[in-house]
From TrEMBL:
GTPase that plays an essential role in the late steps of ribosome biogenesis. GTP 1 binds at residues 30-37, 77-81, 139-142. It comes from Thermopolyspora flexuosa. GTP 2 binds at residues 204-211, 251-255, 316-319. One of its GO terms (biological process) is ribosome biogenesis. This is GTPase Der. The lineage of its organism: Bacteria, Bacillati, Actinomycetota, Actinomycetes, Streptosporangiales. Pfam families: KH_dom-like, MMR_HSR1.
Length: 454
């Protein structure tokens, strides 16, 4: 498939709650008229798979939430992706490729009354290469005779053909049983468990109060210095108990050590920050709120976003702020902190202890956003409505269409939009903003990639 990859980090803010966990994805693939929509209807038990077009998307839905024997999954009807009927046949192999990328299990539908066509061969070849589990559905096997004849489909090299009649329901239960057998187990619990203490990088330019905050957090709590695996120099991390949990603070030795007098200290400080972010899941960026926001502060925030880490910004030395400074600070934040407006914010004083207890809830919330996943069906329904109400701007006389979207990853959340043309930056920002408004992600960067079919 010829998709061009484009990436864009998100810079927009939003609110709202989280989303439910991910469901496994089952994609239905096959050339036109083999009965994909009929099979989808059969599986979801409704008559709604074929619906009229809306501007911007091919059908208003290509994904459905389905369940069988109490197990839920997302069903994707690849037949719904292509806007134009002409040339559709040529694109099935391409769709099969896309389906393979996003699905956990693929159901390849072939018309048993027709046998193997060239298009079926082409799709079969793509699917054999993917390594994803493929179920070969021999559809329109309405009677025992056709069931027998479906054995010619062995020639596709995709294992045993499963005779089914989507129209009459014959064999569809067996087919779904096979799907369930191949579905992955529910993903492991994201939080706690055996992933060890969550990892925090405390970063910020010199003198903002990092070691003061560390001392306050460690306070009377038990502090363990943990030697980093694989290095002899620099036993670096500290395990600190906060809010009933143990947290790993990355490279506390670097924070506590006074090396700012040294030549080249800035360079090494930047290296240290980068290395700490590499190992961390969430960054607490400390800023001296009594001083004007500096380029260096902003650069550190950008480093966190670029590293794809969750972020909490702690405005420290709040005890030093008078009313005028507070007013100025808010204006500086509004005007200059435009790259990471989604970061969570806490105003603290490491010296007096003010609001320090609010750090942990903010960190936990940022980590939750960082692991948040929008189910594929929900995402596509949401985008379908969004695009119908506000279609992408026409470009070079053509209206780009969004065929399908999926959240491919978490930590940080990464979305892929499959499109027929380039989406302008402003429009991508618009989508990002609405995703944030609808699904949260406060405290976490999100990445949106476009896969453009040329
Ligand atoms: P799609 O283009 O792959 O989505 O195919 P459709 O679901 O639109 O079906 C194409 C045609 O095949 C329709 O006329 C269906 O009624 C018919 N069809 C689908 N499944 C079966 C089946 O199991 N048996 C028979 N006899 N016809 C079927
Ligand atoms: P680091 O270089 O980021 O580790 O910063 P330090 O923790 O060494 O703090 C630098 C200076 O700021 C020290 O003199 C601290 O006492 C002072 N400081 C740190 N936090 C606060 C605070 O919340 N309020 C005030 N007034 N001073 C602070």
């Amino acid at each position: 498939a010829e998709f061009a990859d484009l990436e864009q980090g998100d810079r927009d803010q939003g609110g709202g709650g989280g989303a439910a966990g991910p469901l496994p994805v089952v994609a239905i693939v096959g050339r036109p008229n083999v009965g994909k929509s009929t099979l989808v209807n059969r599986i979801i038990g409704r008559r709604e798979a074929v619906v009229e077009d809306v501007p911007g998307v091919t059908r208003d839905r290509v994904t459905y939430e389905a369940s069988w024997r109490g197990r839920r999954f997302t069903l994707v009807d690849t037949g719904g992706w292509d806007p134009d009927a002409t040339g559709m046949g040529l694109r099935i192999a391409e769709q099969a490729q896309v389906a393979a990328e996003l699905a956990d299990v693929i159901v390849f539908v072939v018309d048993a009354t027709v046998g193997v066509t060239d298009a079926d061969e082409a799709v079969g070849a793509v699917l054999r290469r993917t390594g994803k589990p493929v179920i070969l559905a021999a559809n329109k096997a309405d009677n025992p005779q056709l069931e027998l004849e479906s054995s010619v489909l062995w020639s596709l090299g995709l294992g045993e053909p499963r005779p089914v009649s989507a129209l009459h329901g014959r064999g569809s239960g067996d087919l779904l049983d096979t799907v369930l057998d191949l579905l992955p187990e529910a993903p492991p619990e994201q939080f706690g468990g055996d992933r060890g203490p969550r990892r925090i990088a405390l970063v910020g330019k010199p003198n903002v109060g990092k070691s003061s905050l560390l001392n306050r957090l460690a306070g009377e709590e038990r502090v363990l210095v943990d030697p980093m695996a694989g290095t002899t120099r620099d036993p670096v991390d500290e395990l600190i108990e906060l809010g009933g949990k143990t947290w790993r603070f990355i490279d506390t030795a670097g924070i506590r050590r006074r090396e700012r007098e040294l030549k080249g200290a800035d360079f090494y400080a930047t290296m240290r920050t980068k290395a700490a972010l590499e190992r961390a899941e969430v960054a607490v960026v400390l800023i001296d709120a009594s001083q004007p926001l500096s380029e260096q502060d902003l650069r550190i925030m950008s480093m966190v976003a670029d590293a794809g880490r969750a972020m909490v910004i702690a405005f420290n030395k709040w005890d030093l702020l008078d009313e005028e400074r507070r007013y100025d600070l808010e204006r500086e934040i509004k005007r200059r902190m435009t790259r990471t407006p989604w970061a969570l914010r806490v105003n603290i004083s490491a010296k007096t202890g003010r609001n320090v207890e609010k750090l942990v809830p903010a960190i936990e919330r940022a980590l939750e956003s960082w692991s948040n996943r929008v189910p594929t069906a929900k995402l596509n329904q949401f985008l379908g409505e969004l695009v119908a109400a506000t279609p992408p701007p026409v470009r070079g006389g053509k209206q780009p269409k969004i065929l399908f979207a999926t959240q491919a990853d978490v930590e940080p959340p990464r979305f892929i939009l499959f499109t027929t043309g380039f989406l302008e930056e402003t429009y991508r920002r618009f989508i990002e903003r609405r995703i944030r408004e609808t699904y949260g992600f406060d405290g976490s960067p999100i990445v949106i990639s476009m896969r453009i079919r040329e």
